[in-house]
Amino acid sequence: MELETKKCPVCGRYDEILPSNNPLIQPTCNSCISGILKYNDAIDGDFFCRTYNIPFEPELWMRVAGEYKENTFREYILLMFDGNEYETETKEAWSIVNDEWNLITTHEELVAAIAPIKKGFILRNHIKWGSNYVFEELISLENLFVKTLEANNVSNPMQVDAIKKACKLSVALDRAIINGEAKEINDFSKAYQNFIKTAKIDDLITASSQEVISNVAELVQFIEESGFVFKYYDNVDRDIVDKSLKDQQQFLRRLVMDATGLADVFETIEGSLKTKDAIDKDAASYEVMPLEELYDEAINKHNKEFDAELESDTVEEEYELDDSKDQHF
């Protein structure tokens, strides 16, 4: 099939026109389609094939998209425009296909990008763990070893060595399980448990976990923090200590209730407390306004009143003198 070059009814430019199998959709040039098509999106590919009424085959679409990029729809039409129409049976599955496709693409890009890093990782860890491990096993060994040390804050060299050996046995046990070797599975399991005990990993896990109750003291602490209060004494004399406490309480009660003259003693205590309270109040008042200041203030007030009185008497005498002079003349 050959594409015709003529004026595009959409953009008005001369370009290769992509045919349409849908009478309601006019043929459009390749530039218009490539400008809006998401070629790496299966949902978008399904939409354009449905619009142009041509079959949609996701595997073919992915291969064409990987090779032709923006010209995906042009090349796809050249392969699929044979008179067959679009069929919709797996329309809802394209979102799932998209997710898987993106994962594959991302994984391939990452693998291509980290090839030198991967090689260096393998060389370093072959020195650390031995040369008889593949890349995936080295990752498992390193993750298990590092995370175990970090989770349990291990610094003892003997524990570190035991944990390292336990990691190797874990990988060997995985190999035996994959190969189905029953005897090796049994042997590796026993050896693995022995190294776990040697490294005291179970104790470390218990100590580092705040959700594990490992003894009676932690149990008591947990139920008390949850609001439970123990009934240490329930009014039952269970031993000599309980009986001695009750005897002392009864003796003190009789001593107070049967004693004579307690009223006078209490009145004396109350009087002394009232006297002390009055002294404390006087002291507090003195701190607020000392007696010297009160005395000075009273003297000043008295002097002012005396001066005012003298001034008043002098004015009256002068007024009387003036009156007498007026009468004389």
Characterise the protein shown here.
A three-stranded antiparallel beta sheet has the order 1-2-3. About 70% of the residues lie in helices and about 5% in strands. The model has no long low-confidence stretch (mean pLDDT about 75). The radius of gyration is 51 Å and the shape is elongated. The chain has helices at about 30-35, 40-50, 60-70, 70-80, 95-115, 115-130, 135-150, 155-180, 180-200, 200-210, 215-225, 240-255, 260-290, 290-329, and strands at about 5, 15-20, 30. It folds into three domains: about 5-110, no CATH class; about 115-210, no CATH class; about 235-329, no CATH class. It has about 325 residues and is mainly alpha-helical. It contains 14 helices and three strands.
Index terms:
3-stranded antiparallel β-sheet; elongated; 3 domains; mainly alpha; 329 residues
Total E-strand runs: 3
Count of individual helical segments: 14
Shape: elongated
CA distance, first residue to last residue: 153 Å
What is the structural class? mainly alpha
> Could you list the spans in which at least 5 consecutive residues all have pLDDT below 50?
none
What's the main sheet like?
Answer: 3 strands, antiparallel
Strands, helices and their partners?
Layout: E1 4-7, E2 14-18, E3 28-29, H1 30-36, H2 42-52, H3 58-68, H4 72-80, H5 94-113, H6 115-129, H7 135-152, H8 157-179, H9 182-198, H10 201-208, H11 216-225, H12 240-257, H13 262-288, H14 291-328
Antiparallel strand pairs: 1-2, 2-3
Helix pairs in contact: 3-4, 6-7, 7-8, 8-9
